[in-house]
Automatic annotation (TrEMBL):
Pfam families: Ribophorin_II_C (PF25147)
Segments crossing the lipid bilayer: 79-102, 122-140, 146-166
Domain Ribophorin II C-terminal positions: 88-171
Superkingdom, taxonomy of origin: Eukaryota
Keyword ATP-binding assigned: no
InterPro entries membership: Ribophorin_II_C (IPR056790)
Name recorded for this polypeptide: Putative transmembrane protein
Keywords tagged on the record: Membrane, Transmembrane, Transmembrane helix
Amino acid sequence: RLFPRLTGDYRFELLVADRSMQSPLRLHLLDKELVFSRPVKLLHIPTGDGEMLAILPVEKNMLPAPLLSWENSPPPQQASLLAAILGAALCCLLPSGALWMLWRSKAIDVPHKIGEPSALQVLFIGAIVVQGLIVVLYFFCIAFLQLLPVLGVSLAVTSLIGYRALCQSRAQQLNESGFPEKKTF
């Protein structure tokens, strides 16, 4: 609750009590002066013995600025070291490892084919760009759950590269064997 004080400040209190409100536990949070964005009527505060004290709030901001400022906001929760390592492995190392295995595979021979303009080249470059975006996003402290869509796109691109490369390799193998080439997707 907000508890107005005679000095013009407001005391922010947290009250913990049962329904009867008998002997509530009061937790004093802070004392701050409230400022308002438009003219507000005088606040009449009982001072005891039937007397009232009128307080006119300063006319600036409607909400207390200390609750909206960066200086008074709670610090962001940092992920644990294990969560950071797991997130880095899932978001960066696994797709990158899959790309590296595709690159080193002699059956697909990507280093030889990458010099030729093909869909494989475009997909491989696109996957590397996605990997770079994942690394940039991860090290700018974006939450792991927000990285899951990017991880899904990266795995999809990596899978598409593998599928396309295997199709090209199979078609090339059929051509070298003398069988007619079958159309692949």
